[in-house]
Amino acid sequence: MEPNHTEELPANEAKKKYTHWDFLIGVVLGAFSVFIIIDSMRMPTYGESIYARPGTVPIIVGVSLLVLSILLIVKSLKEHKLALLWGKLVALSRFGDAHRFLALTVATLIYIALLDSTNIHFIILTAAFLWVCFVFFKVRLLVSTVLSIVTAAAIYGFFTHVFTVPMP
Amino acid sequence: MLWDPGVLFILLMGVILGMSVGAIPGLTATMAMALLLSFTYGLSTSMAISALIGIYIAAIYAGGITATMINIPGTPAAAATVIEGFQLARQGKGKHSIILTTISSVIGAVIGSVVCYILIPFVAYIALKFSSWHTFIVAITGVLICGSLSGASPLKGWISGLTGIIFSLVGIEELFGHARFSFGSTDLMGGVSMLSAMVGLFGLAEVFHVLKEEKPYTIPSDLIGIKGKAFNPFPALKKYFRTIIRSSFIGMGVGLIPGIGESLSCWVSYDAARRSSKEKEKFGTGHYEGVIATETANNATAGGALIPMLTLGIPGSAPTAILMGAMLLHGLRPGPLLIKDSPGEITYIFLLVILAAILMGVIGLLALKGFVKLLSIDRRILLPIVIVFCVIGCYGSKLLMFDVWVLLFFGVIGALMKANDYPVAPMVLGVILGTLIDSNFRFAFVASGGSLSRLTFDPISIVLIIVFILSLIYTSRGMKGHT
Predict the structure, then answer these.
(1) Nearest residue on chain A to B452, alpha-carbon basis
(2) Which one, B247, B314, B318, B442, has the greatest CB density within 10 A?
(3) Domain that holds residue B369
(4) Which residues of B touch A166 (CB under 8 A)?
(5) What tens digit of pLDDT does each residue of B445-454 get?
(6) pLDDT band at residue A2 under the 50/70/90 scheme
(7) Do A130 and B153 touch (CB under 8 A)?
(8) Distance from C-alpha of A156 to C-alpha of A161, rounded to nearest angstrom
């Protein structure tokens, strides 16, 4: 199974299947499914059959999701007292390496945004993105520089000349 | 025709290309086939079809290699292989998983093709009987099964699957052209790209999830057993012979249902293997039977998916839709008249599938060390490059940057899901099958005049509904067991 952080928690916490995050996820999903249901109910009916309405399947799925969200909230409350839940939500104990995740997400977001909105060449942007990633993850500087440029150029050449796929 | 050196060479090139594409997360068999379609226009009909079939068969197989080595299925068909294959790699048995993947894929493709070819007239008859309602039940059962199997908690799996279905409903719906959940955005009216969702959830999410660790794991090539004692797969293949046969038939059966494809057959087969196994407790810990079940089924699906395409003119999966496009380009018309007008073409295509599978097996085993060395590269170098492939793959399908943003969205969602033990595979399946579920459900009721009884009281419906209810009961028991 996927590596997780249960080994960092006390033994009785590690055995629990539903965490404080599941409570929050249940609340968010519950709100999301309510939104889906309400929006779907506003969709028009074409013809006479209500089953063929555009909103029919979203309503069914939304209701099912709402039921499961409530079940999730109940199960996480069974395993964790409500007072403790709020404290732990702040602690980010389930995602202790958040700064690396955030850094990589932001780097990817900037890379995609620059590809979308500027005329900077694909090779330059890709090489820069790879270089930043390699350096951030502590790959040696010379290796990072050479590898990022070579990889970006190779990818560009392969896709544009072999597959004839235009690059962003 | 089949033994023409030019055809064989093109088939070999197709297999190598398919393996390369299938093994790179972010690229899919469908994309490779679509890109090459324009090249095939200049080739003869037999060469064009052989190239595309080579890519199709090999790409489905190669997805299982990355599933084993880096926990990212190269194609959705290998999503279930991740469960057992990656565990085997972490135990130093990655070579075992890859060898079993290779041989199971060959066996699945060959059995699938031979049996389907023999049963074409009967199978085409059943395929014709399959209505929208039946397709709806199969698809929703598939998402349910996937949800219950792919994580420790069926509840989280079902939440993941249903959320995927909701995402798939964004955009203009098929029946009346109404724009759902688009909020006036023309980008959202185009819907959520299935490819972006798949690549984001399987590829980008895994990259984010792994690289957030201070020391991302790496599976060195010597750890997976490349050096040292050779692995003999035949005892395992003999022991799980019934699983192979059952998985082949499951793959063929799922492939017959238009629009469903390999992404579901691997899960149905894995579920069936786990339920009927005498070693149920070993599933999820790196069990050979699990790898055999999924990889046999997903390649057997190719044989099944060809039948509705060839006999009815309805593609069984996205790759067969591309293949159908190539056939139309070259003047062949798949459909009921093909059997009458060009029966030799049908025989030729099935023989190509068998030959492609054999070539794939030989090259796969010979190239094993190369694959392993490539995929054993330090994750800090390999995974940022995977991000670039994911971006290119998503942009390349429709040349829209919006699809790349969707990729990032699903990548972040997927990483958060993984961190909280929510399986991503059901969400991918929900996105893939969601519009099928929606449109078939509504078509069925329109066709029956709104009558549920007319839909449910036919033999196929009754069987499918019983399977659905039994799946629900069985997986609910699994959910209670987890609390």
Answers:
(1) A51
(2) B247
(3) 5-482
(4) 396, 399
(5) 888 777 776 6
(6) very low
(7) no
(8) 8
At B107-145, the pLDDT tens digits run: 999 999 898 888 887 766 776 677 888 888 888 888 887
Tell me how far the alpha carbon of residue A37 is from its chain's centroid. Answer: 23
Query: With 60 as the cut, is the pLDDT of residue B475 above it?
Result: yes
- The answer, for B155 touching chain A at a CB cutoff of 8 Å, is yes
Chain A residues with CB-CB distance to B396 below 8 A: 159, 163, 165-166
Domain count, chain B: 1
A112 vs B153, B163, B391: nearest CB = B391
pLDDT tens for each residue of A65-77: 999 999 999 988 8
Can you point out the beta strands (E) in B162-242? Answer: 171-172, 179-180
Helix H or strand E segment including B374: helix B368-375
To the nearest whole Å, the CA of B419 is away from the closest chain A CA by 7
Taking CA–CA distances from B27, the nearest residue in chain A reads A159
How large is the average pLDDT for residues A84-94?
56
pTM: 0.79
Q: How far is CA B425 from the centre of its chain?
A: 11
- Which of A19, A53, A137 to mutate against chain B (most B CBs within 10 Å)? A137
Domain ranges, ordered by start, for chain A: 6-95, 98-161
DSSP B312-346: IS--SSHHHHHHHHHHHHTT---SHHHHHH-HHHH
Instruction: Identify the residue whose tokens are 């070999």.
Output: B12
Neighboring chain A residues of B388 at a CB cutoff of 8 Å: 126, 129-130, 151-152, 155
Q: Is the pLDDT of residue A41 over 90?
A: yes
B162, B169, B417, best to mutate vs chain A, most A CBs in 10 Å = B162
Mean pLDDT within B160-167? 94
Q: How far apart are CA A13 and CA A46, in angstroms?
A: 52
Spatial neighbors of A149 by CB under 8 A, at least 6 apart, are: A127
Assembly ipTM: 0.84
Residues of B in contact with A78 (CB under 8 A): 483
Estimate to the nearest angstrom the gap between the alpha carbon of A100 and the chain centroid. 14
**Structure tokens that stand for A152 in this block:** 């970006």
Q: Is the dihedral of CA B147, B130, B322, B399 positive or negative?
A: negative
Is the CB of residue A145 less than 8 Å from the CB of residue A138? Answer: no
The 10s digit of each residue's pLDDT in B236-288 is 889 999 999 999 999 988 888 766 677 788 888 998 898 888 888 888 888 99
Chain B residues with CB under 8 Å of A98 CB are: 212
pLDDT digits (tens, 9 = 90+) for B18-52: 888 787 776 677 767 776 776 676 778 888 888 88
Residues of A in contact with B284 (CB under 8 A): 1
Q: At what angle do helices B94-129 and B45-70 cross, to 10 degrees?
A: 130
Judged by a CB distance cut-off of 8 A, whether residue B442 touches chain A is yes
% residues pLDDT > 70 (chain B): 88
Length reported for chain B = 483
In B348-387, the residues whose Cβ lies within 8 Å of chain A are: 378, 380-381, 384-385, 387
